[in-house]
User: Fold TetR/AcrR family transcriptional regulator from Streptomyces misionensis.
Amino acid sequence: MESSSARSGGSTRREATRQKLYEAAVTLIAEQGFSATTVDEIAERAGVAKGTVYYNFASKSVLFEELLRHGVGLLTASLKEAAEQTARRGGTKVDALDAMVRAGLVFIDRYPAFTQLYVAELWRTNRAWQSTLMVVRREAVAVVEGVLREGVAAGEFSDEIDVQLTAAALVGMVLVAALDWKSFQPERSLDDVHAALSRLLQGRVSGRV
Amino acid sequence: MESSSARSGGSTRREATRQKLYEAAVTLIAEQGFSATTVDEIAERAGVAKGTVYYNFASKSVLFEELLRHGVGLLTASLKEAAEQTARRGGTKVDALDAMVRAGLVFIDRYPAFTQLYVAELWRTNRAWQSTLMVVRREAVAVVEGVLREGVAAGEFSDEIDVQLTAAALVGMVLVAALDWKSFQPERSLDDVHAALSRLLQGRVSGRV
DNA sequence: AGTTTTGTACTGACCAGTCAGTGCAAATCG
DNA sequence: CGATTTGCACTGACTGGTCAGTACAAAACT
Assistant:
């Protein structure tokens, strides 16, 4: 009954084409923006005929939306994994936050173009994929908010903190620092960057410990 | 010798038109991005003919570049002012950082569209105004870096902090938190948001004080 | 044998930038 | 004084090019 080549869903060939298109689109759109990137360019960089793009995706915007969903899905999974692993090992909530900072850095290190593109589109309004982006953002930030809330409940964090705003600020801290790293001092190591952010996170900038 | 009608520089009329064009362009580009915004739209929103745009600016990109310079100039000045005022009053460097956080929030509160657009374009590569943006960014971040460096020199901050990266992270923290505030909970007061960020800045989230 | 990809050619909407011309107020002229 | 010129600011129809999306027959995969 079962086919020998394990196929879960679509054919492998088609999946490979879609993957190539994602990769081509992500770098081009990160560099130039959505509107300035042409479908011809995407097809060419993917090494594929233009018709193939439209055989695989209903339109340019749909391609982009699926790309967004795909990418943020990876990030969210990675953040969750980091938080859960820390919990399993009996770490504190600060440890969990720190692990998530690292997971964020690893993600950005691996997919800098996606991150760039995500930031560039996130606060736009009046765009077709706005709602998709909103949903997907909530999922990611919610992971951070969850850890903060648990920390408050456990008495590890002050109950005066504003969970939502603090989560956004933490995400912003990592995002901007990492993009800066990649853009302006790419020779530095991930550990190095992580150490700097850890210090800031734990208030060891101003305070003597 | 001197003319009776004291006119310093350009005519008032022209200046007013340029201002209208700036205002129209900033909101449209923040919403849709540079490439997706047409010159016709900008002209229409400014209540001006298309030709007038080209009478006042050499091209669409030039209009945008001057807009960027103009906006970041305002921000930089405001940050400097905050730092200097704190110094004059004999505040600590943490106080100065805090004052700059507030200045940043005030700026974003007043010019949310500009901030949006700035973030969206900052990490793009291969764009015409890339170099302009780079210069202008350095100026703004340099103000924060300056305060951090002085703090280290004065022994107020650990000399192990990475000035450049920490500055970027702080800017990111304020930027993203503020955009989140404006986008998702605009009813909150500036003081409220400032308080949350202050707490984070001073490590009063996790640390017992 | 059905699915996927290719290559080429095409369409029609859209858009940055141009240009000949208008309106108007101050300056110059006769 | 009235008539004419000058220069600035602005206008909006027009042009030349670009690009998303379509069409389709032949080829390549699985």
